[in-house]
Design goal:
alpha+beta; elongated; 9-stranded mixed beta sheet; 5 helices; 4-stranded antiparallel beta sheet
């Protein structure tokens, strides 16, 4: 059977290609995968995992780390150094042979589904006791408090800059997480969107189990309510103009507009996730 027996245009994306692209991006744009405070970025030996970067990153003096604000200590104007690093990210299209899913996600990987595995490493720069003691604030001198008729606020002012506590090393940890889901075409307000969706999310072996469940619930909310909706693609905004650059064959402004083939008995899934591929079946119309 030809690839285009059920459509005008057939496109597919193999999981190996996706994983290779992610590997290249991680090495050539390491700042997308590594986040740390300024003090840690200046002393990369503090990082929990060494950054593997392509030589071009150093030649062009591109950043290895994205600088983030210190982690605040509530009730004070102090903050602690920290770092977060995404050290591994892989995708697995059905039938699921790249890695094993944890039992909480009910393996094996279901038909027309994909799985994602990621390894996240982080570290918090908790200072030693002798350093903390130097920053413990003394009692407030009440004689110097202005007479305003109120007791004021014990909370730190928002305009007071955060003081980053120094650290000699990070307390490091790594977490393995897995997600399962897929891609579908959904119509909103009469317009078709290509939309990723999440079935399940699992963080491996955090104790106690209630902490693990709470983190999974919170991260799942972020993914479902913020991250994945932001990845929707309005199909009319993603046409492939096959005539661009070929004005001798296709007089302008003639365009080829692409849309998804409708699902039918002959084409039960579009897009389809199978045979380690993400497949898309497309209808082409000349307008």
């Amino acid at each position: 059977m030809g690839f285009t027996d059920k459509c005008d245009i057939f496109a597919s994306f193999h999981e190996d290609g996706f994983n290779q692209i992610i590997s290249h991006v991680r090495k050539q744009r390491p700042s997308l995968f590594n986040y740390a405070t300024a003090d840690v970025a200046k002393n990369r030996e503090l990082l929990c995992k060494a950054i593997e970067a392509h030589p071009i990153v150093f030649i062009r003096n591109n950043p290895l780390v994205t600088i983030v604000n210190p982690l605040p200590v509530p009730g004070t104007n102090f903050g602690v150094n920290f770092a977060v690093q995404l050290v591994d990210l892989r995708i697995d299209f059905h039938p699921g042979d790249e890695f094993n899913l944890p039992p909480e996600l009910d393996p094996p990987l279901k038909a027309q589904r994909l799985a994602i595995k990621l390894r996240l490493c982080g570290g918090i720069g908790c200072p030693p006791k002798e350093i903390i003691d130097k920053f413990i604030p003394p009692p407030e001198d009440l004689s110097k408090r202005p007479e305003t008729g109120t007791h004021g606020s014990d909370r730190p002012r928002d305009d007071v800059p955060i003081i980053t506590l120094p650290t000699r090393q990070l307390i490091c940890f790594c977490l393995d997480a897995y997600a399962t889901g897929g891609v579908r075409i959904v119509t909103y307000n009469g317009k078709p969107y290509l939309e990723p969706f999440l079935d399940g999310f699992e963080i491996v072996d955090i104790k106690p189990v209630e902490l693990e469940n709470g983190l999974e619930c919170y991260i799942g909310l972020i993914l479902r309510l913020a991250v994945l909706p932001g990845l929707r693609l309005l199909l009319k905004h993603a046409p492939l103009n096959l005539t661009q650059g070929a004005t001798d064959l296709f007089p302008q402004p003639t365009n080829v507009v692409l849309s998804p083939m409708p699902v039918s008995a002959a084409l039960p899934n579009n897009p389809a996730i199978e045979e380690d591929l993400l497949k898309v079946f497309i209808k082409a119309e000349v307008i």
